[in-house]
Amino acid sequence: MDKATSRLSPPETPRSFGFYVDGRYIDAGNREMAVRNSPGHGVPVTKLVKCTPADVDMAVASARKAFDDRRWSGLSGADRAAVLLKAAEVLRERAEEVAYWETLENGKPISQARAEVGGCVGMFEYAAGLARSLHGDTFNNTGDGAMALVTREPVGVVGVITPWNFPFLILCERVPYILASGNTMVAKPSEVTSATTLLLAEILTEAGLPQGVFNVVTGAGSTVGQAMLEHMQIDMLSFTGSTAVGRAVVEAAGKSNFKKLGLELGGKNPQIVFADADLEDAADGVAFGIAFNTGQCCVSGSRLIVERSIADKFGKLVADKLAKARIGDPLDETTQIGAITTDAQNSTILHYIAKGQDEGATLMSGGTAPDHGGGQFIEPTVFTDVTPDMAIAREEIFGPVLTILPFDTMEEAIAMANDTEYGLAASVWSKNIDKAMTVSRQVQAGRFWVNTTLAGGPEIPIGGFKASGWGREAGIYGVEEYTQVKSVFIEFGKRDHWIS
Ligand code: NDP
User: Fold this and answer.
1) Which residues are catalytic?
2) Ligand 1 geometric centre to CA of 171 (Å)
3) Domain tally for the chain?
4) How far apart are CA 113 and CA 104, in angstroms?
5) Same structural domain for residues 200 and 87?
6) What's the CA-to-centroid distance between 83 and ligand 1, angstroms?
7) Which residues partner with 307 through β-bridges?
8) Separation of 457 CA from ligand 1 center, angstroms?
9) Is the domain of 215 the same as that of 355?
């Protein structure tokens, strides 16, 4: 905090973190440290330990012991709920601190980071209720001498590998639900955005989570992450990130212990806008859907599929909206669009903007990298004259780049929406319920929005169809995903002998 102006500013010296095993920080010792520069300011803000595969072994052993001795899974749902509720309370108290470090490492606007942390409090509260209500089934129809129970048991040690776009939100869409049934965990955040995952470890310890139930290893995906994929003592792994690494996750599971997997991968998500929509609302939603988090969302609405009769007018409405969005210092309370999180991602987005023009699309607005002093920023960009075969219309750019594709009939709009390997999310904008519901039924996507976008909450499951992934996170679905079903068949009375 800059005391003279009371505006937030980056720290004068970077904050150092250890990694977290058995309920406490472990110092770097002679391990290397990685320095993270704020993408919004270009100055060093954190120093994190580059863990080794041996550190992964240590963290997994801690989680294994904590699972096997039942210090967490053996508690009642009510006792686990009490810890999750306390975690929500501590997180609420420390929300500003979490939002600050999230903004510094990720580059997202502080107002957005605060809202995300607020949402995460709700996830812990909701998951606490699920810890109490999780239950199985019984079969009382097995004849007078028998009965069957179906129970849900935690899977065991769960590894979670998270990306840099929503380091805290994506973590909290998983952790409380995974903990609700009694699993223990090892989390590996992206090397560039690890601070808030470590803060969550502190918060959980403060809330009374037993030692060893939640551990954090930091460092590169290619070493630390890879060691987790191959680990024989990790029973389930939740991976969120690129489709390319997702394939490596599946391969490694097959070559190791067939660990159960949850995968949330890429998206090239359609926003279908009919001429009968409230066009002002739809334009605002489409602008939000592509520029929120600088388009670095797996669920960003990057393909605008719009009815031809309004395509020009609507494209202009969206471009005008985007031109008014406030880009700049992520620590400024009024900023709406912050920095691009990594240098590599910055280059990727600029590469696609150039490629779109090379392919013959027309750059309607944006496309430049404005200078806001120190950080890396890209203006929201809109392309027209796009054809469905162009790379900018097919590949996940993961940046604020919108492609406009016109359609003539509803059937054509649905076919265009489904013309992708992905199936993560989709939106439709129409005041005609028949059209909206038909489109919602026929578009292949794990999340679907009608007259809104990027909406959800702790109750609502998330996850993808097709190459966007496997499994569901959040809500009761997210809790059940991290359980395994056991059937218990019980006979009573005298056995009917097989050998007499
Ligand atoms: P990655 O898939 O490489 O990174 C996601 C997570 O996986 C990070 O924690 C990363 O660690 C880790 N990781 C990387 N390699 C391995 C590995 N071999 N084994 C285990 N874990 C690994 O995504 P990028 O950060 O490189 O982004 C590339 C593209 O992926 C983006 O342009 C975007 O298209 C897509 N993406 C999609 C996301 C989504 O939410 N669906 C999120 C992020 C990216 P570390 O970062 O420390 O190397």
Assistant:
1) 264, 298
2) 14
3) 2
4) 10
5) yes
6) 31
7) 407
8) 24
9) no
Task: Say yes or no: 258 and 274 in one domain.
Answer: no
Q: How far apart are alpha carbons 307 and 310 in whole angstroms?
A: 6
Q: Which domain holds residue 410?
A: 270-450
Which of 238, 242, 259, 348 is the pocket-test mutation for ligand 1 (most atoms within 8 Å of CB)?
242
Q: What is the DSSP string of 310-342?
A: GHHHHHHHHHHHHHHS-BS-TTSTT-SB---S-
Counting ligand 1 atoms within 8 A of each CB, the residue from 186, 245, 268 with the most, and so the one to mutate, is 245
Residues 137, 70: Cα–Cα separation, whole Å: 23
Residues 356-391: pLDDT tens digits?
999 999 999 999 999 998 899 999 999 999 999 999
Of 80, 14, 98, 21, which is closest to residue 48 (Cα–Cα)? Answer: 14
Is residue 277 within 8 Å of 376, Cβ to Cβ? Answer: no
Residue nearest to atom 14 of ligand 1 (CA): 221
Q: Closest ligand 1 atom, CA of 189?
A: 9
Same domain membership, residue 472 and residue 437: no
- pLDDT per position as a tens digit, 124-147: 999 999 999 999 999 999 999 999
Q: Is residue 463 part of a domain?
A: no
From the CA of 68, how far away is ligand 1's center (Å)? 31
Is 6 part of a structural domain of the chain? no
As a whole-number percent, the residues of the chain with pLDDT over 70 amount to: 99
Q: Give the count of beta carbons closer than 10 Å to the beta carbon of residue 216.
A: 27
Kindly state whether residues 274 and 259 are assigned to the same domain. no
CA nearest ligand 1 atom 18, residue: 222
Q: How far apart are CA 55 and CA 66, in angstroms?
A: 17
Q: Is the pLDDT of residue 3 over 90?
A: no
Asked whether residue 348 is assigned to any structural domain, the reply reads yes
